[in-house]
Amino acid sequence: MTSHTIGFGFFLTDSPSAIDLVERAERAGVDTAWLVMPPLGRDTTTVAAAALARTERIRVGTSIVPAYTRHPLNLAAQAITLDEIAPGRFRLGTGTGNLGVMANGFGTPITRPTARTREYVDLVRTAIATGEVRRAGEFHTVDAALPHPAQVEVSLAALGPRMFETAGAVADAAMSWNAPLSYLDAVARPAIARGAAAAGRPVPKIITHLNVLGTADRAEHLAAGRTALLPFTANPQYAAMFATAGFPVGEDGEPTPELIDSLVVAGDETTLTDRLGELAETQDELLMTLPWPSGVRRDQEDVVLRVLGSLSRALVAS
Hints:
Blueprint: E1 6-11, H1 15-28, E2 32-36, H2 44-54, E3 59-63, E4 65-66, H3 72-85, E5 90-95, H4 99-106, H5 113-130, E6 132-136, E7 141-145, E8 154-157, H6 161-170, E9 173-175, H7 181-199, E10 205-213, H8 218-233, H9 236-244, H10 257-263, E11 264-266, H11 269-280, E12 285-289, H12 298-317
Parallel strand pairs: 1-2, 1-12, 2-3, 3-5, 4-5, 5-8, 8-9, 9-10, 10-11, 10-12
Antiparallel strand pairs: 6-7
């Protein structure tokens, strides 16, 4: 299987620099720029609108819009509006986000997240695709018409097998986040296939998230990977997933070098080109983000953009 695309993702430190980075990614030839949004971060759909208006070819995706920060019809309307601004270039990624942050920050603990997310994504996807949705659900009862339908891919972020199964049932793609490839093969792909089979639909693709760093310095690689992964190794759900993938977290909660190597691809331009080219042959699609918050330099960003742009063009040509 050959990857259709390799996208470039990044956390928004501020809106103007994010728009500039999307423009730089387009100049480099990157297929998709993914805007990363924590539950209480900058609104990626707003930044996407500005970035789409300032560019001509690159697709812009959200990774992710936390689902419960807005009603499903509001999210569908945003997607349709963005598709009007740049037809065919907006990609919608959504999911639960960090449920602990949602509960503490918004004061709204999310009960039954899998069932709730399944209904939410199904409503969003139906509303976008048909321009209307009329349904009495368990969590939402809606009877509404939107301006018109649109063709916008809806991806669902997933971690555990039940959410990957949900993505198989209702989404256009499943999106992983800091999940080793061994976990995707052993757990995620079978779960997606089960969900798709139960829903009687084709198996959606996986958008595989990994980190990328343009440096051949091993110490810098490990330091950036440690900073980026510490919040995840400290999370019990992620720690369990890492153990399932064959990378158990020690009692000190530190990410091991082996875990860092599985999730952070680092090297000079030639090394990155070779390694990411190999990955593109085994993954449906790659979403490569800069390790955060590691203070990546602009020259390292340029290396990564050149590599991803070159590989994107090669995939299109093939």
